[in-house]
Amino acid sequence: MLIPASGTGQYLAKSAKIIRFARxxxxxxxxxxxxxxEVKRDQTDPVIEQVGTFDPLPNEYNEKLCSLNxxxxxxxxxxxxxxxxxxxxxxxxxxxxPIHPRTYMQAWRNRRSQAEAESKNVESESIQENxx
Amino acid sequence: MLRIMNSLKTMSLEISANTPASxxxxxxxxxxxxxxxxxxxxxxSKIFRVPPRTxxxxxxxxxxxxxxxxxxxxxxxxxxxxxxxxxxxxxQKDDQDLNKKEFESDLEACMKLNDEWNAKQKVEREASAxxxxxxxxxxxxxxxxITEERRQQRLNEAEEIVRREKVFxxxxxSPEMLxxxxxxxxxxxxxxxxxxxxxxxxxxxxxxxxxPKETASLKQ
Lengths: 132, 220
What we know:
The complex is a heterodimer.
Chain A: E1 17-26, E2 29-38, E3 49-54, E4 66-68, H1 70-78, E5 82-83, H2 85-93, H3 101-131
Parallel strand pairs in A: 1-5
Antiparallel strand pairs in A: 1-2, 2-3, 3-4
Chain B: E1 2-7, E2 12-17, H1 58-86, H2 88-169, H3 178-187, E3 195-196, E4 202-203, H4 213-216
Antiparallel strand pairs in B: 1-2, 3-4
């Protein structure tokens, strides 16, 4: 049976809550719900509330679509829910939080590897030219 | 040394003294949705694999630390702000105080207005009550008059009937006169079994002997 999007999960008032991804979709097709749950719950368990979605596969316009319910996120953070790192990164990119350090690290590492690949290409090309 | 054995069937932990030569620790997987069977340890080919240690340059490490410090500080402020604004406990406290004050001031204003209206209404009510009393007295008087008239009328009617009956009562047969009346009736039999001709003449004599002609030809 499908779980309704808005909260069938049983929870205690004082238990630790977290805003995190819950993997939906199927094999080779990830899709994430952004949900509020108790920390100790499994990701397949019923959730307290769904506050967004995230599609990690880019669509035909090279977009990764993401939806967020900021009002409810504010409410849950205000009432003591923590946020998992991937969701923090997403909220950082959406402008709700400051940009997460991981995002910066990812960016500069990507840039570095790209530069290295380019320099390798240049070297290989120059070697080939010399041979010719 | 201790030898730790994990008995999967009974799920109990056995601890027994042993020699160092047979020291053996078996680790098992423990996940909710295991990718591999729960009883399989590390793959044979991976037992002695030592993953290369990631080396982060000092400069980069410093930068990461700086970024994380900044991020944590900002997150703390944001969380605190959300807590102050959206936490249910805070909101309830604030609301209660505010509500109480608002309610009291509102109640005071309402009571004042209510008293004013009551005073105004009292004057109006008394005036209208006096008018209504006057009206109802008038109405009662009128009704009384009408009732009197009706009673009088009924009395008159009754008296009329009595008077009429008294006139008829002269012919009534009283107990004293009963014998005489019976004798008189027996002496003068009346024949109702008669016929009429076209001119309205009464023709008697069906059962009784016919009367003399002078009395029989009486017109009705």
